[in-house]
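Cross-check.
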Amino acid sequence: MANHQGTEGVIKVGANAVAEVRSWNVSQSAAVVDDTEISDTWQTNKPGLKSWSGSLNCYWDETDANGQAALVVGAEVALNLYPEGASTGDKYYAGSAIITSLEISVPEGAGMITASMSFTGNGALALSTAA
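Predicted model, tokenized:
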């Protein structure tokens, strides 16, 4: 059984890696539609629509023109989420997402400025293999 460390994770906007990534997450869910009939003694359900969303945390880098700068509120971007790295044969998730929030945090003193973005999928999230 294979397992991986967080140091392998990569997130890309299209083919461009986002700089200074600290962490990211993605979650998938499916709605449940009740199809219980009046004569049923137990509730029954059908699978409904699927959705996905996530977030990205990084050190703010104003020079990352093709990564962080592309992640502006309201933008629809092609996201590629690599949990185990982006080398040939590595699995990754790919889909179109809309950036729903952006937060820049400036700490007191010598702490690092961070950026956090949230996104919501627009369509399917596909599991692919890096070539």
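The mean pLDDT is 96. The chain is about 0% helix and 55% strand. Passed to J.P. for a second look.
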